[in-house]
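Notes to self after the call with IL:
- keep both proteins in one doc
- input above output, always
- annotate only the second one for now

Protein 1:
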Amino acid sequence: MAYNRRYESTYFSLNQRKYYLEIRDQNFTGSTRECDLGAGGCQIHYDMDGEEKYSPIIASKMDIPFIVKDTIDELFIKSILETYNEEDVVVALYRATSATYAPLWSGYLLMDLGAQQDVSFPYEVKLTATDGIGRLKDIGFWSDESAQLTYKHKGHERITYWLGEILNKITPPGTTQGITTDAHMRAAVNWYNEEHDNAGTTFGPLYQTQIKMGMMESVDASDTITVRNCYDVLKDICITFGMRCIYWKHSFYFIQLDGYNTSESGTLANPTNINTRDYSLADPPVHTASRDYLGSTWWTRYNQTIENQTAPGRGIQKLEGTAYQNFPILKQVSADFMNAGDENYYNGFPESTPGPNETGGVGDSETVAQLTMDDPQSATNIMLRIPLNFQQDTTVASFNTALFMFKVKFSFYIKASIPSGASGTGSTQYLKRAGSSYSWSATSPTNALNLMTFETPFMTANTAGDFNSIPFGTQNGELPPITGVTGTWQFEIILQAYTDISSGAWKDPVEITNIGSTVTANGEDYNIHGVKWSNVLNIAAGNWINQVTTNQNGVLSNVLTYVGTGSPYAGQLFLLNSSLSLGTKGEKITTTTNESDTSQLFLGQINWGDSPLDSDVSSILVYNGSAWVFTDPSGDWGVGTITPSSPISLTKLLLKEYLDGQSIHIYKMNARITIGAQDKNSVDASGSRPKYINPIGRLVEPNGTYPSKNYIFLRGTFSTGDDTWDGEWFNIDRGTPTLSTTASDIVGLNTPAASSSLPGGFMQGSTSSSKMAPPGTIGTTTAALSAASVVTNGEFSTDSAWTKGSGVTIASDKLTFTSVASGVGATNSATITVGKEYEVKFTVSGFSSGGCYVKLGATAGTTVTANGDYTQSITPESTTAIAILSSAAGSTLDVEGITIVEKITSIPITDFGETILADNDRFTLVDSQNGNEYDLRLNAAQTSGNTTLTIDAYAFSEDVGVPAYISVNEKNLIQQYQNKTEGTIAGMDVTANQIDGTTQLGEYTVSYRVEGSGLATGSDYVLNGEDHTKSGRFGVINPGGTSTITAVQALKSSKTLIDLALTIQSGRLAISGTNNHVLTVGLYKATPVDNDAADLTLTSIGNTSITLKTNSKPRLSAFAEISEAAMDEGELIIPIISTDGESTNFRGVITFTLKYN
């Protein structure tokens, strides 16, 4: 909905500065109204949390003294109080007489106006608008990609990206809201890492540095995710990089406070001070400009002098009553850098077995996804420890007494992949075993020789309990690192049925065995062994905090909140560093001066810095000109250069800058400062620029024979009508104290003991519950969906199941063609079903000549003649054979693997109980076991009572367990909401460019000028035609009157040729002319015939009669008898005019509206 300008006001300050205020209302349509303002005009207030001079966020609001003059104004105020919502009304204040340039300030009107007085007109109401920064406290740091999605999956992104994500959550007013320009970010940040490409004006560190947001969320014992609010995230970023955020002149400024020590040179028109870069608020933000000065040369000047001493009573004046205070000299500054080097990614082990069962030739499985991790390739090793609790019930129905003493053996594997929606590089890998050694492979294990195992000691029902296990063949659970990947990854621990090598029978991955191994029972045979297992829980995974809150009714409530990250399970999945050890939770870094002062400052938790392990959630990437690289944990940061003489870590640099800036006496000035009417501009050889106090630049106060002091804005109020600021400023300066820095470990739950490099024992406690269904769930499936390949030995791991022709061999996990004749190849022992559609995937390597193709039954797939991964859809006809064949004589190549998966066309479901989905609707199927999502399309409408969904043929990449959730396809929903290209509207089919077969919808209006001179009574006049001097003149008499017209005259007199079937909805005219003559205007339609000169029949589609009242008085009328008259393709619309008087003159406009059918 458009934001229409509802009110505007122009006023002048005491020194004749011009201001223009506009109030835009998206609920308003109508003419702009002038509003009156109370004394002093608009006031802009800035404030911050706390009293520290390094406050990272200074938020603003603007008060408008709105004068309610009448009931129209009163209705506006009433709407704000009773019906409007936040972001309905935008205000913008311009330092001009109209909405030109960027506004000085803009924001959304708050709906809370406080108590209203019942007084007579006129009276004043204070309207308040906010820049939105404060509202960030009420906005959770959730990703905008989908509901309840955090930002953890994004991995590393530019700092400007994160700032843009945060600011865009308050929708800064811009062109969409009718403001002259869009807001943008402006960064005066100049701390560089040695790995940065350069420290030039155009190279912005915020744009060329990446961080991630893994610490901005916590997960409780029931998998409920809590995120921090956006204000706190913005605050943390600002603190980490020593900058503050403030809005002014339609820019969100990010300024490192130490930069204010930069002196200014140059001229008024071309100053030089702090290097600054501009970034848009697009998604993602882009670098738009660079300059070597902060602010602008007009209304955001960097350096301006208080002139009480140099020019009393003129220019910038500090008024009487100024007070000075001191900030305490700092002795010590400290911070907790939380690198989270001991993060545990364990999320449990499967608590049930799939048994010795298979579906379509693939073993059934049970999977538990572990917590996501970033850049696991940086680890030197991986460590896995699995604690499980065992119980035995010897009273089960068919208990085998030989199993009174038993042990349990698990066979499993680990799958590593990029989770859905995350950013990363590399292919899915599987951790396999060969004897007691382990390696990562691109193919999943298929038999006992490849599976990882662990087993328990022998136990009884009385001695069963918690047992800690590590993979077979490892000393402490260490496993090889995954390589060749980057970004965000996730491990899955999978129990899957597998085949016995000798017998080919399916095996249960869980076995319960008696002492002596004379009796072995499948894990699924609970009635025989009575054994259950579960994950050991960890009450120390986080902290429970009792929060007391007061609701709007004044009622106190206690909320027990879980604070922490990671899993509630006691197992351990760690990434080990180069010392094959586990890192600490963080470091407490303290920097101290050698002075005798006592004041200390603690900055709290710092979430980003130079981490010892690239996988740490706090790690930082910087751009070196060609690639993104991790920062050195030893620290390579400096101010204004990539070659600092004494490089230090980012956190230590932060502490140093705090101490350097407050190791001497720092004054806080509480003052009223104004600009007089005289000397309100600065002048030098480059020109004239206004003296204009602003919250971005600094004020210079001369101090007699002593050095001047530079003051930086802290908080205050700008009264625009009085040209006055009432506020607090502090002087910026830099000392050179002698500093010493110490660092001590912050110990986490997983931090190794002093005598060990590896984490200690397993924790116990807490409880866990199953995951909730995804939002938007409308039903569930009732049976598993298979992704099994029908091919036997499609990985070619053994020389079996394939009948090979001449020149075809199987070895080293490959099917090899060596100079194979055309039509010769290998046929599989498995078969397919005629008429079913299959997805065929295979990989060709080692290609040197010829080609190959897959043939299902009598249907051949597409021939391939190069190395690569191929996916094809094939529907076999007549026979059921599976073959890979040479397409040409002398084919030489390798096929490394093939899968053939039947595409599913029907999904068994629970009855929805109502009709919800139509043919061609899209929906998402969510696997409850692993969270995989599949976007599917219906191939037939769903109705109440259906227990299946018919879908477009789809090959699933993995088996989908039961239940799977059927939910709204949110991405498709958003796309179709914005730009509908499919489905139906009111029963009409929608395509990419048509609705119900129509390429155009809506209305358009035809309008044209008309005139006549000397028209006589008794005749029907038509338009002269375009070949006359005045194309809108009615001067030709139609011999056929209103019944017929010649074909040639119809073409001359027509104003419209209908191209698509439509309806005339309405018409009207505005005409003046000879006094008291009655003019009759009619609209007629006629249908010309191709290559035919016959007269055309006229059919009336509307008419009106008006009595003219001289040339100076227009008469207005609507056409009567237009009851949405239908028009067909190829018809002409012809206006005809007659009069009841002699020598009638007229002129005017005829218009009518057409609507496509």
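Protein 2 (the one to annotate):
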Amino acid sequence: MGIRFIYGRAGSGKSTFCLEQIKKKLSNNNGNKLIIIVPEQYTFQREKDLLRVVGEEALLRSEVISFKRMARKVFDECGGRVHRIIKDEGKNMLIYKLLQEKGEDLSYFNRISKQQGFIDIISKTITEFKKYNISKEILLEGVEKTEDIDLKDKLLDLANIFEEYNSRIENKVIDGDDELTILSKKLRGCNIYEGAEIWIDEFTTFTPQQMDIINELSKTAKIINITLCMSNSSNKEEDVTDIFNAIKNTEKRIVKMMEENNIGYLEPIDLNKGVPYRFRNSKELAHLEEHFFTYPFKIYNGENSNIRLYKANNSYDEIDTIAKDIIRLVRDKNFRYKDIAVICRNINDYEKITSVIFTQYGIPYFLDKKIQVLSNPIVILIMSAIEILTKNWSYESIFKYLKSGLINMEREYIDKLENYVLENGIKGYKWTTEDVNNGFFNRENDISQEELEIKEIMEYIREPLMGFHNKIKGNKRVKDICTAVFEFLLELKVFEKIEDWIKDFEAESLEIKIKEYEQVPKIIMEVLDQAVEVMGEDKVSPKEFYKILNAGFESKEIGVIPVALDQVNIGDIARVKGREVKALYIIGVNDGILPSATKEEGIISDRDRDLLREMDIELAATTKARAFEEQYMVYTALTISSKYMMITYPMADFEGKSLRPSIIIPRLKRVMKPLKEESELFNYFNRDKYSKITTPTPTFNELVLALRKQVDNENIEEYWQEVYKWFLTREGFVEKTKNIFDGINYTNLENEVSREKLISLYKNNYGNLRFDVSRLEQYASCPFSYFVKYGLKARDRKIYEFSAPDLGSFMHEILDNFTTRVKNENISWSELNREKCRVIVDELVDKKLKEDVNSILNSSNRYKYFTNRFKRVITKSVSVISEQIKRGQFEVFSNEFSFGDVGSGEPIKLDLPSGERVYLTGRIDRIDTLIMNGVTYLRVVDYKSSAKKFDLAELFAGIQMQLLVYIDALIRNSKYILETGAVPGAILYFRIDDPILKGESILDEEKLKEEILKSLKMEGLLLKDAEVVRAMDNDMSSFSLVIPAKFNKNGEFDKTSSVATEEEFNLLREYVNIKMIELCTDMLSGNIKIQPIKYKDRDNCEFCDYSSICQFDTSIQDNNYNLIFKKSDDEIWSKIRKCVKGDCVEDDNEMD
């Protein structure tokens, strides 16, 4: 009896040697058990290897197991496990409950005990304690020995959590992490491995639990062979930089154990002789294995055809290049897909893109990655059904539930309901009342057919959920809630639905999906059973149960095995290691990825671990030690393949952020001198001209690109004509091929719509062409956007919310009502102060909300808070308005004055050259008048929710005409409206706001008032008349706090003043009429160009609701902005004068 080491570097044939020994032993037929122990993830592959090398005889006496499997086998044959195993999900659920109840008693972890992720940290810490044979007593011993206060508090908390956890599972269940401890004890009185010959392979290190098992096995087994991936045992010195250092430490620990327990040391076997067997056909790979980590290293100067290095532009380029190369190997080099593997350190980042590209190339692959059960539809259904109760039937929880795919309802009805719920804000009591009709549909005679349909859908959804909620609401036993969950799944026939899905997957040959969904129902039941097992009698609320269940599902993963033999294996380095790989692709070789730069120390820091080690308390390695061990992971990756290897790294991630290459890359270039770093540019000049011919789908895509170049008069390879002909006869590609040139010549530009059709679209119910002035500005901003909105009448999905336009309308209405009330009650603006304004505003807002009971502002405390904010903003605004009016001589003539509405002024009439008459309507927020020297001056004020200034360039382009149109209409109709003639005084914008003032010093009341006035100063265009301007601000000296005017020392207007003479005002009035006729004529002629305006920071596409319809893209031919270049006001005035004289230039927006 004894232990024998088998030394051998990567590729030396250690695993093969073990299998050959077993084959030889079987031929001796001495009856001894022959056991191979490997890590859990290698068991499947090693069983395949055993059958391949030994044949069916291997099934008679030999066996491949992991330590976990050994435990189950021993327990089954010799007894030892009297309770059920608590799995990770049960463990996490129990830890959550424990921390909820005992978290307040902790000293060090008190604050973070309720934080997300802490459950997992504690779970991993408990697992570490068990693997390293750490007990509560050992932790308390550390508390006594250490002088570090933080470590003392940590250990005390952990000791208490550990003790509480163990006491809660005692005599109920067994922690899975205790299985190996129980196994080592059970082996002492069990002769199951008496005389067995054992080979332990693929381990880098052993936990104390595993060491105890090896110790016990050595007492009964005939021999234990342990493979060690290292040169030999001659160098005993400690060297943390040595890639084999961790393995050498493992060897030392085993030797120490052998000495302490009188275990025989058998003569070792050294397989490190000559070129490693794996690399016998590749000098390059053999050299890399031997010299990559040696210092000084030996440079390889021979021929290189087996190692490639590729610098990709991004991850897509990286995977696409690899897919092409895999096709090349299989097609031209006689490789099988099963001979090829793709490995990386960050499999999650590459999962989706690899799946898409490999499927496109027709490459069969197996993604060796476990699937999170939390993303499975059944789990989503269960969690959302509970969440509906805990979140008061919120929109998110209901539609997460409905869209799980497991509710027996057509998607069309779910979409209809979703639109209705979003539009009307249905939640809470509107779902849960005994009769849905009383909850929301509370009208008797005017329910539409659509609402009746919605009501039926709601009741259908509500019934099973209400039944389920009645069973779990309040505080119920975990056992009863789990039963209710199971009954709920049965009621919805979820398991039958899953069976139907599996049949659909079978019809489509989706083997991975079949394996996944076959496991899910069992996993669901396991999690529920575990919850009952560990806390079945405990009473919890639905909210607590949701968190408990979430903790359970969070730790549960679905594992699948390969469903075919001939496929490319994609996975993490550790999972691919141990398989026979002839061609290897190492992807994502970037800085911080490979080698990994993990710096997470956990709740037990590196310093803590060092202090504990000084007290002979051994735990897992520190991050520093793991960083050196990561070098061994790099060594493992570089030595997996036997014939061919390609290393790739992207220069940018999926978001376009730059990435740096790993330290592996420059090292590789130095060791392998003939190695050329390839890239897209390098390959363009050095590629095989047929490299773009791979499999049908990607080749078709390349064909499209080639024909695109041909259309653009670029040279292409002659063979593309033959490829085109081939696709014309290829099933599944005939129609696509015929449509290639349609796609190449595609344009998103729309043809003009017929005049008759447009006129019919734009006419109102009375047969008139009636437009709002602001609509013409929208047409000028982008004809196509206007057509979609007002011609096609496209509408956004209505959502029950208070949007920016809603806020604007709300504030406009309150301001209008305020001014009307001031006028009706004969309140002088000079009498108004802030308090009076506040009282009136509060009354007006409260009255409006009382009248509109269904207003969203009445729907929740959150919106009531917003209402109070709106009151403050409006109060501040009317206070400022009153102050602005008090400071001047202009008086309010009218508010919300409308053109073209019933009971208001006549619409503005435009007679077009084509003979049509257009009626323009609009609404003026406020009209002020001043009678001075027998002349009536008009001031038009427009309320805005954001800052706006007068811009002559925007007016010239037709996107800021509104106030000029209004003042022109007022002047033209002044004798009818004002009963006298009038001239323009000003057009102004007032911003509704409650500004935040910034300053370093505390301001007195008067200064504060001035700052507020300055912040909310009106902007616009004033009549260039000093007397009229001063009449707008009696307190004005050199500059005004209420209007955009300033005088210089000579009493003349400063250049910063926004002013125009009466002649210029009249010029603008004439111009906007010309511009409106031009826009209306253009609109009705059928022009629906996709031509958004771009000016300064204004980009009409940025917030356009219809950009997904037009797909405007400047990279597409003829997709151009209507650019407004910044010109001087003098230039624009000159152009306006020309237009008014009938000499408008077509390309006015070009740069001079």
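Annotation: Confidence is low (pLDDT under 50) at residues 1147-1152. The longest strand covers residues 917-932.
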